[in-house]
Amino acid sequence: MAMAQGFTREEVQSIINDVANTPLIDDKTRDLLRFAEKITRHSYKVTAEDVRALETAGCQQEEIFEAVAVTALFNFMDRMADALGAPVENLQDMIESMAQT
To answer: Which of 1, 12, 44, 65 is the most exposed place for a label (fewest CB within 10 A)?
Structure first.
């Protein structure tokens, strides 16, 4: 998804490697990525305080909803593919072609 927004493969890997310190994203995006990670790893620990912290950081409710929805969708798709042993063929090529349009 980041590549579709204009990031290179190397930049995406750089962000993944060090979300806390990368200069490639702003603080609001950093907070949303941390929130998405919490949803992925420990969704049962997400609290109203987490949402309020995002709002305080400047996130609109629509952005928070989108972060939850996209994270949940990707987690669902990953688990379905893993459980069924379904390979995601040519994913990188599809992402790169989306970024070029």
So the answer is: 44
Q: How many CB atoms sit inside 10 A of residue 85's CB?
A: 6
* Topology annotation, domain 26-100: AhpD-like (1.20.1290)
- Which residue intervals of 43-90 are DSSP H helices? 48-56, 61-84
Burial 39-57 (b: 16+ CB within 10 A, else e): beeeeeeeeeebbeebeee
Q: Give Cα 83 distance to the centre of its chain.
A: 21
Per-residue model confidence as pLDDT tens digits over 14-50: 999 999 999 999 999 999 999 999 999 999 999 999 9
The Cα 76–Cα 48 span in angstroms is 23
pTM reported for the whole predicted model: 0.78
